[in-house]
């Protein structure tokens, strides 16, 4: 039998699949909740073009018969109608943390290109305040110096990203997420961090025991 968390993830994913319409270009997130979305989307049999945020998602989506378009190079789609993805933390102030699966760089690029970026989570992902770990993708070139500059960062025991990046986590105090996001983005050697601001997120669909709760921009 599915656990409560799995059931909530599935409910959120299924609700998000109802937002798609034939003719749309849709961004497919990474992780278990996103997989519920991708499966529910496939069951609707719509005519879609899709962009995958990871090789794992691309493989799942191709198996389910989706038309996957490349999001690389100057001829990649400029805008997506909809993108749906999971999250590791969703704070009451609207900040979100992604990248538990190490795909946050591609996930952020897809989210930023979407007219409507929808986050799907089980209720255990809701937090009062964002806390460490905050996923990081770092350049291998100069890695030692980047880690020293960051101070409170730990490398992950994980293979390189599809873009050649090194996965790590910020493990220090988060404090004000907006300030930390600026600091991390301004650190040479940091390719991308997993803090997503509320401006990126159109809505959050939270799976609950008895249905799906919709949180608008800003929580
Ligand atoms: C991958 C992610 C995932 O969306 C996040 O880790 C949530 O995963 P799950 O839905 O399996 O709990 O950001 O980089």
Protein model, in words:
The radius of gyration is 17 Å and the shape is globular. Helices cover 29% and strands 26% of the residues. By secondary structure, it is of the alpha/beta class. Helix 1 (4-17) packs across helix 2 (32-44). The model has no long low-confidence stretch (mean pLDDT 96). The protein is built from six helices and 15 strands. The chain has two domains: 2-88 and 96-123 and 196-207, Rossmann fold; 134-195, Alpha-Beta Plaits (2-Layer Sandwich). Strands 3-2-1-4-7-14-15 form a seven-stranded mixed β-sheet, sandwiched between helices. Strands 8-5-6-13 form a four-stranded mixed β-sheet, with no helix packed on it. Strands 10-11-9-12 form a four-stranded antiparallel β-sheet, with helices on one face. Bound molecules: ribulose-5-phosphate.
Question: Topology of this protein?
Answer:
Elements: H1 4-17, E1 25-28, H2 32-44, E2 49-52, H3 55-63, E3 67-68, E4 82-85, E5 89-91, E6 96-97, H4 104-113, E7 117-122, E8 126-127, E9 134-138, H5 143-150, E10 153-155, E11 166-170, H6 177-185, E12 190-193, E13 195-196, E14 203-208, E15 211-216
Parallel strand pairs: 1-2, 1-4, 2-3, 4-7, 5-8, 7-14
Antiparallel strand pairs: 5-6, 6-13, 9-11, 9-12, 10-11, 14-15
Helix pairs in contact: 1-2
The protein binds ribulose-5-phosphate (5RP).
Residues 29-34, 85-88, 98-104, 107 line the site of ribulose-5-phosphate (5RP).
